[in-house]
Amino acid sequence: MFKLVLKLLLAFLLTISVFLDTKYVDKNKLSYTLTNSSNFYKSKPYSNILTKIKNYTFKAIYKTKLLTYVNDINNLNLGKEKNEFYLIALPLSDKFNPFSGTFCHDNIQYSDKASLPIFIYDILLNKHIEVPWNFVIEKVDIKKNEIYNKITMPEINMPNNYKNINKVDRIFINVLDFKAKKNFLFLPNYIMKSLQLNCFDVVKLKFVKLETATSIILQPHDKKFFQLNEPKKILEEKLRYYSSLTKNSTICIFHNNFNYYFDVVKIDSEKKKDVEVASIQDSDVIFDFVKEKYP
To answer: Which domain, by its residues, includes 248?
Structure first.
């Protein structure tokens, strides 16, 4: 019913737009206005309003279809007991910030924690999967109808518009909470940037078990990190908000009103050297550093 109303509204807007175009264009000057677009648009005083309403309607229809598509895939995978789910990605906001005095308070953007939908929690319990609950996510390219190709969703901005975030094909995350609406996933901004995600892009999520890390090499982006008093101690304290690290990804910690970024250069686990990912939760990891990336 909702989709039908949106389609009727869109048809109405297109009809009104055509009517106004005809009304405000002098037919004797049609060839002139077609070659002088600035004059052409000045002759349509309602054009901007109608365009905004039309774009809003297109976005609403696209979001509805996207949600239906994701929901259908997840229902199929649930029926097949498949460990793979499609979720619509959005950035974490302050409303997900845990209460003062609780774990991760004021650090949700400086962690690998994501807000997941409650049905994921139900699956974990029903399958008796023990914590830590780690997942791998990767971007899914959705084929769009041509009419939706020009739809642009809000982009994700880092603090101070920081742009030096490594791009990766997939990244490993842990659970912040299960407050997300069904078929949605809320991620820290740096993870959105790492996977080149914009709002309402789709990711594929799988549960994974990880080996424990033994040693990790990091590369600070800024030499200011080495000028801190006991930098390694500060880093180890801040990394308690991370459950795992992904090789070649960029992570961020916040200390004394400054964002410190690091590239994950190398990870060794208990069983293998130079692995893609390993858990650092409740483990004694040796951290080492290479020279800063941007002197």
So the answer is: 211-287
